[in-house]
Amino acid sequence: MLHALLDSPSVTGAYKFRIFPGTATEMDVEARLFPRQTLDHVGLAAGTSMFFFDETNRHRFDDFRPAVHDSDGLLIDNGMGERLWRPLANPKTLQVSSFVDADPKGFGLMQRPRAPGHYADLEAEYHRRPSLWVTPGQAWGKGAVTLVEIPSDKEVYDNIVAYWRPRTPLEPGREHRYSYRLSWCETPPIARNRLAVINTRMGSNLDGDGRIAAIDFGPHGLIPDDLSRLTIHRSANRGRTSGGIVQRNPETGGIRLGFTFMPPERGAMELRAQLLLEGKTISEVWLYRWTP
């Protein structure tokens, strides 16, 4: 067990850490915060990581390796019963994304590809990097899981940050208590009751007037023998998307969802896709921010 004190011009506090080492190392955290002033932007259970490139932005980097990252996505088990997967990006400008929620079940920065060949790096061994999952110890109320993606030109920089931001500011003059568990693991300690996104690829379509998104879902018992029974839901806040197709992927044992999207002439585009069977969601909700 460890204890720590926090002291700054705006807040003071005390932390207690109970650490359980093992194949998956877990840490129970208790925090007591005493603001000295109103805090309207607090980051709880913050984690950092590195994302340099993968199949979505490989064309920007002259490198012998096919992918370089400590984490490849943000996973959120939200309070509304959705499981969200947001592939990470190394943007050209600072990007901040907020996933509004109430009483989240958990969130974390995941490293999903585990095959050494995905990275072809015999020194860094990115396939062995752990994921970090956050499980709230009590109801956190309303707020947002916040993702910060910082432009980076080298893999040595941690350019990814994820944390919980409470909606209600922390007021001075009283104690604010929070508890949560951190799990450093290969896979998060949650029910495997959804098809998980294991890879995202992007590139130009044949006509050059749009982009193709290829989303690979891993093998799962929920996948029907007849793929025509699946319903594809896709949407975008701007631009246009085409009809999607679902195919079996013999390499992964799962299925691939592919569709074309036509970005707007200017600005970013928020994409969303998921698979349903008989009206019920069976996959994670894939979210992606496309930027020029």
Overview in brief:
By secondary structure, the chain is mostly beta strands.
Number of domains: 2
CATH topology (fold) name of the largest domain: Beta-galactosidase, Chain A, domain 5
Identify the CATH architecture of the largest domain.
Distorted Sandwich
Number of helices: 0
Structural class of the secondary structure composition? mainly beta
- What's the mean pLDDT score? 95
- Write down the CATH class of the largest domain: Mainly Beta
Question: Strand-residue fraction?
Answer: over 45%
Q: What would you report as the Rg, rounded to the nearest angstrom?
A: 20 Å
Helix content: under 10%
Sequence stretches where pLDDT stays below 50 over 5 or more residues: none
Measured between the Cα atoms of the first and last residue, the distance is 48 Å
Described by the principal axes of the CA atoms, the overall outline is globular
User: What's the total number of strands?
Assistant: 23
Strand and helix order: EEEEEEEEEEEEEEEEEEEEEEE
Chain-wise SSE layout:
Elements: E1 2-7, E2 11-20, E3 25-35, E4 44-49, E5 51-53, E6 68-69, E7 73-77, E8 83-87, E9 95-102, E10 106-110, E11 131-136, E12 142-149, E13 160-166, E14 176-185, E15 197-204, E16 211-217, E17 230-236, E18 240-241, E19 245-248, E20 255-262, E21 269-277, E22 280-281, E23 285-290
Parallel strand pairs: 8-23
Antiparallel strand pairs: 1-2, 2-3, 3-14, 4-13, 5-6, 7-8, 7-10, 9-12, 10-11, 11-14, 12-13, 15-16, 16-20, 17-21, 18-20, 19-20, 21-22, 21-23
